Write a sequence for this structure.
């Protein structure tokens, strides 16, 4: 089955710092890869996705590149803001009609 | 209303109670999902419905009983729960099964006393 490993949180940064949240996965076939974000008191929202090797997903200044050779999909942002404080989930989805597999999530705390 | 809504947002129930969680999606989607989110554990997929038919049940105890009367509504009926069932229950929907982005509701925070 599919699985995902995310770095343990919380990740604590100052505003404008560089962010990396690591994610490695195992999945059947040729998975699509997703990052979801959960702001306090809300459900999950899709942040970005990549559907094939070497694709780069990007949104709101966040980026992640689908690395098939290292089975990784690390999330990066050049300059974080206080409003980026949230829990981030990496989620692979195997090929075909398989559903998403979520990691434990990584909490990001950004201070002014 | 837009997106995916869930009611109630908070629920406290005793172990002998019976209650129901409701999810409604206003997106015209055909697939709906129940997830359980517990502290320090990965998000757990519980049930999947596609065109009102259950397609996945991830070994969920029978004290959780889902119902999908149509593609827009999903219920989770609860009875004789245990304290370890306390969690955030999230509903999601997608246009199709598996291939599309899932849209999540805000969740119901359940506390079993």
């Amino acid at each position: 089955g599919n699985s995902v490993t995310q770095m343990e949180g919380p990740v604590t940064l100052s505003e404008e710092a560089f962010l990396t949240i690591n994610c490695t996965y195992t999945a059947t076939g040729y998975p699509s890869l997703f990052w979801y974000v959960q702001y306090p008191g809300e459900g999950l929202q899709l942040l970005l996705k990549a559907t094939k090797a070497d694709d780069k997903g990007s949104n709101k200044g966040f980026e992640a590149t689908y690395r098939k050779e290292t089975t990784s999909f690390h999330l990066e942002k050049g300059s974080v803001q206080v409003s980026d404080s949230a829990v981030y989930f990496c989620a692979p989805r195997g090929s075909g009609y398989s559903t998403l597999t979520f990691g434990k999530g990584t909490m990001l705390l950004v201070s002014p | 209303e837009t997106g995916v809504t869930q009611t109630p947002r908070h629920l406290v129930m005793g172990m002998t109670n019976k209650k129901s969680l409701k999810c409604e999606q206003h997106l015209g989607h055909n697939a709906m999902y129940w997830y359980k989110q517990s502290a320090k554990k990965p998000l757990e997929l519980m049930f999947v419905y596609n065109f009102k038919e259950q397609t996945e049940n991830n070994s969920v105890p029978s004290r959780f009983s889902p119902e999908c009367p149509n593609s827009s509504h999903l219920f989770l009926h609860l009875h004789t729960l245990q304290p370890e069932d306390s969690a955030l229950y999230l509903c999601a929907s997608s246009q199709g099964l598996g291939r599309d982005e899932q849209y999540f509701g805000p969740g119901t925070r359940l506390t079993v006393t």
Notes: The interface with chain A takes residues 4, 33, 40-43, 45, 48, 56, 90, 92, 97-99, 101-107 of chain B (CB under 8 Å). The mean pLDDT of chain B is 93. Chain B has no helices and eleven strands. Residues 33 and 76 of chain B are 10 Å apart (CA to CA).
